[in-house]
Structure formats: C-alpha cells, structure tokens
Description:
By secondary structure, this protein is mainly alpha-helical. 74% of the residues lie in helices and 2% in strands. It has a two-stranded antiparallel sheet. A hairpin with a 2-residue loop joins strand 1 (144-147) and strand 2 (150-152). The longest helix has 32 residues, at 73-104.
Amino acid sequence: MNLQYIADGLLLGATIGLGAIGLTLTYSILRFANFTQGDLMSWGAYLTLTLAGAIGGALSGEVLPLGPFSFGWPILLAGLIAMGLTGLLALLLDQLLFRRLRRHGSAIVMVIASFGASMALRSLLEFIYTPQPLYFTQNLQIARRLGVGIRLTPDQLAMLGLTAILVVALHLLLTRSHIGRAMRAAAENPALAEITGIDVAQVVRITWLIGGALASAAGVMIGLTVQIRPYMGFDLLLPLFAAAILGGIGSIPGAIVGGLVVGLAESLGVLVVGAEYRAAISFAVLILLLLFRPTGLFGSRD
C-alpha cells in the first residue's frame, strides 16, 4: 500500500478533528447539533484572507515567506485575529438566535434554526466574496521526501504541528483551569452546575468562543493546503459530524481520533471505490462503527 495515502488521510483527519472539537463541545453543553460549524470554518478562512491583505497592504515593502513556508507573518497575525473574530461571530449567533430559542424551543427547533443560520452565513459569504475560489498565496511549494514513500510540503507539516498545539492547549484549559472544570460540570448536568454556583451562561459564551476560534483555525488550514471557497466548510459538515459521533459526543480526544479515522477512511477509500464516492465514505464508516459501539470510541452510556 502506498503510504502517501495514509499521510494524506492524517492531514485531512487532523483538520476534520479540529473542526469537530467545536462541534462536540457545543453539543455536549447546549444539547443540539450545530450546523453552522462548517460555515464558521469558511468565515474564518475569508476573514484571515481579508485581514492578511489589509496588513500586507499597510506595509511599504514586500512581505517575504517565513522560511520554507508559502506564507509570511501577516497571515499568522491575521489568523490569530480571525480566530477571535470568528469566535465573536459564533457568540453573536447565539445572542441573536440560539439563546432566545433555548428558553422556549425544543432541540429540534434549535437544529432547524442552526441549519437556517448555516444557509444564511454561506449565502452572505458568497455574496461578499463571489463563488470564485481564492488562495492565501500564489507561491508554489515542492513536497519534501520524509522517507518510506511519503512526501509532504512544509505548509502541511506546519498544519499538523498547529493542530497538535491547539489540541494540547485546549486539553490543558479543560483540565487545569476553573473555566474548564465549569465547562465539564455544565456538560454533565447544567441544572446541578448552576445550583452549585457555576455561571452556566458564561460557560455557554466561552463554549461558542472556543468553537468558533477552532473552526477558524481549521478553515485556515484548509485554505493554506487547498483553496478557499464559500462552500468549503459545508462540504466538510458530514465528516465533522461523523468525527464527533465516532469519537463520542463530548470527548475532545475522541473528536481528534474520530477525525483521523474519517480522514484515513476517505483517503484509503479512494483506492477502492474512487474519488467520486469519497463523500459517502465517512457516512459508511460512521454507520459501521455505531452498529458495534453506539456510544462512539470514547463515549460512555448515560
């Protein structure tokens, strides 16, 4: 077997897993499937592109790439700002829409509302930027040999490293900080958490901020390694849900492992059934695994 397919699957799976973390956080605390997660990835990528252009335009000289990478420091700075802005966009959605529905609506109403919000975000993005694909940079990279038949570009290696840093940082936040313990308590039992003095409303706000920021980071990764399109996040929505469910709803390590499983399955499935059926592979893997373990890989029965 060509190990290059495994490497490509791990790259795709890392991006899917990062986006699925925000999805599983939202579901575990707010108890509804958030269809806007994919579109937040697209918004994060476009915001980064816009901010990077503004930062680069403000400089008098040419911005050179950082070392072997195809991008310069304006994209790094713009990416950090875009993570915050995308988190605020997710929070704004909650304040304008989801918070009102949580008081009087059911879970299915929340799901339908998130689907409608997803369509609105996607249409607005297409209206502002047009459907034409865009790129962070026109610089071409030559893949480097890593041995055993695997070739990766410096940008792809940077994306793997960034994913690892973000996952470790989130793990430390959830396990070593007061707000992390509050988030885990709210995920277990919101009513009991509120009785014990935890500000559940603040937990909800922070959950939206984190979910939006991680979605933005995942969107930038896709944009750097492929291209930016208004539908790029929507096209990954099924793999995001598959990864979150495979790993077990509420499990951060599970979302990453689920993303890697889905990414590997899609990459290796191309060898068997062809690229035209790639979108159905993650759904097939999800069904097969849940037949044997309905709670997911790291999930537990209530």
